[in-house]
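Action item from last meeting closed. Structure (586 res):
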């Protein structure tokens, strides 16, 4: 959206504050760290010890960087302090693109940044498609944020970023339109800084004696085109929303703006509140922009957009599935007709499985699984470009399916069955659905006790997040992950009911990751209703699906996928439910 006058004023104020604090920090009379100037030393009620600490004569050692092997940091003409080139610092970067294959551009940029070993990707936000700001006559952007660890000081990090942007085709000549289209856009948002006092409250003599403070660096070097923190981040929802993702995904640790002294959540809530107030104003003449939507990148430049609940239609090509076993396993054309019908009925994904994982099921050989699933994937791709997920526990099957045209790997074991699964999915660069499960289909129903984990909600959340972190460590970023609490897998009836009722709680405990819920025709519905025929449990399925997406916790931009057999019935129910939820009470 265009900058309103209040936002322009705020931008000017923040920029001026950063400049003033940087100038003051370089003065011998100004002794406390820049971050402390805004946080701990501005209140009249501070302790004598704190005031004394603020009065120590100090020349800051975290503002001036020079490229060399030993990285000397200039304090004055006669005083050099060396920083170990391998000393690691953390930084937050904004990433974006609105030209070509936007996700692949971002992925290529991050891969290039890490190519020389001085920058390591630690964590990603989720990705959002957002309307352009400032210059609106251009394609929507794909935006996100990442946390990196680096041995590069800020100017060298900036240089590495600009080199990557140049290599990927961004025009850095100065002749391109400012805020115009770009194949890739990388910005430094925050960077670790240093406390300047020892534990005794006296000025530290060397950088090595200082405490590294998260995101504390404040620097204003407009001549070098580098201002940290980024001077406009607080006005950009497409920056603050991904930064809040990282805040939620970091174990609940706040990411604090070193000048404004507010968390990313606080800044985002303030921005949204102000935007809502302005949009509701009678004299508002600003152009309205559509909201940002989270997305799941798919191969070939496609994306699943979480602007609504996505329905995943089940297509089992097995002879022994609990609900429709054998119905679509004998004829590829029958299976194709079912897939196309589910697409017509509103499915956003077709989930193809060649191995039954119902309780007590026997494992299927890889060659047999391939024989079952490959023909239907290839046949669907001849007729439709609908996203396809491959329901498999085996890396070989996942690889073959993706090569044949599938888009997503759906592993009921969460990557525990086959040790090659996580690295294989990471190498392919496709999304992965990580389901919670204990044991295997033959043993899982003996593993339903979660008392040691303070109940099923806590236990499933902890174990799911362990799988998510394992996937991330293997190279599958969070923006390519979907979590599934595993309804019916290593849960008893009460456990299943608790998971559905507490869907919002488990989502919050898992950092607002996208969630897939699969209650369709499961045995717990039969136990509750007395219905013994799985095919007759669609009414109970609808109830379970609607409760699972209720969002009583009012989690912002929650993302849902529902895996079901009867796509038409559940799609109609969800559309009606969501329309009622959005309706105004006049």
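Sequence:
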């Amino acid at each position: 959206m265009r900058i309103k006058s209040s936002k322009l004023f705020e931008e000017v104020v923040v920029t001026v504050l950063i400049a003033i604090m940087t100038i003051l920090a370089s003065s011998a009379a100004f002794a406390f760290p820049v971050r402390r100037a805004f946080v701990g030393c501005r209140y009249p009620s501070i302790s004598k010890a704190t005031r004394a600490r603020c009065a120590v004569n100090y020349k800051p050692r975290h503002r001036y960087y020079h490229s060399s092997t030993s990285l000397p940091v200039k304090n004055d003409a006669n005083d050099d302090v060396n920083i170990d080139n391998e000393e690691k610092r953390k930084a937050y970067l904004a990433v974006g693109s609105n030209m070509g294959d936007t996700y692949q551009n971002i992925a290529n940029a991050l891969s290039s940044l890490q190519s020389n070993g001085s920058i390591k990707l630690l964590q990603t936000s989720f990705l959002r498609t957002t309307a352009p700001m400032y210059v609106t006559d251009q394609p929507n952007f794909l935006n996100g944020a990442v946390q990196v660890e680096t041995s590069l000081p800020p100017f060298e990090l900036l240089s590495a970023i600009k080199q990557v942007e140049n290599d990927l085709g961004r025009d850095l000549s100065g002749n391109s339109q400012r805020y115009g289209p770009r194949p890739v856009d990388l910005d430094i948002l925050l960077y670790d800084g240093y406390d300047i006092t020892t534990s005794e409250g006296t000025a530290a003599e060397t950088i090595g004696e200082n405490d590294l403070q998260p995101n504390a660096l404040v620097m204003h070097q407009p001549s070098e085109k580098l201002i940290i923190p980024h001077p406009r981040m607080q006005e950009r929802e497409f920056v603050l929303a991904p930064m809040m993702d990282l805040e939620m995904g970091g174990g609940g640790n706040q990411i604090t703006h070193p000048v404004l002294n507010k968390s990313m959540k606080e800044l985002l809530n303030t921005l949204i509140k102000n935007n809502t107030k302005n949009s509701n104003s009678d004299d508002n003449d600003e152009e309205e922009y559509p909201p940002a939507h989270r997305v799941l990148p798919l191969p070939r430049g496609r994306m699943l957009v979480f602007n609504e609940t996505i329905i995943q239609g089940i297509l089992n090509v097995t002879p022994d599935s609990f609900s429709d076993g054998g119905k679509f396993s004998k004829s590829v054309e029958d299976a194709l007709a079912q897939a196309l019908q589910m697409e017509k009925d509103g499915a956003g994904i077709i989930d193809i499985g060649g191995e039954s994982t119902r309780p007590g099921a026997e494992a299927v050989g890889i060659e047999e699984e391939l024989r079952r699933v490959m023909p239907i994937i290839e046949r669907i791709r001849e007729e439709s470009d609908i996203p396809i997920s491959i329901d498999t526990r085996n890396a070989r099957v996942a690889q073959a399916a993706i090569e044949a045209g599938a888009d997503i790997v759906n592993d009921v074991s969460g990557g525990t069955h086959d040790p090659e699964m996580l690295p294989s999915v990471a190498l392919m660069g496709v999304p992965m659905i990580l389901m919670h499960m204990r044991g295997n289909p033959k043993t899982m129903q003996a593993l339903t006790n979660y008392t040691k984990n303070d109940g099923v909600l806590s236990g499933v959340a902890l174990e799911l997040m362990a799988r998510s972190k394992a996937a991330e460590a293997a190279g599958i970023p969070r923006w390519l992950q979907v979590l599934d609490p595993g309804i019916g897998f290593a849960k008893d009836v009460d456990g299943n009911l608790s998971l559905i009722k507490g869907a919002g709680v488990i989502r919050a405990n898992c950092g607002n990751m996208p969630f897939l819920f699969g209650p369709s025709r499961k045995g717990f519905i039969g136990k509750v209703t007395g219905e013994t025929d799985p095919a007759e449990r669609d009414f109970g399925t609808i109830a379970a699906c609607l409760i699972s997406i209720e969002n009583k916790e009012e989690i912002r931009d929650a993302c849902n996928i529902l895996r079901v057999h009867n796509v038409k019935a559940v799609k109609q129910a969800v559309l009606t439910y969501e329309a009622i939820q959005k309706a105004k009470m006049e």
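Note appended to the action item: The chain has a mean pLDDT of 82.
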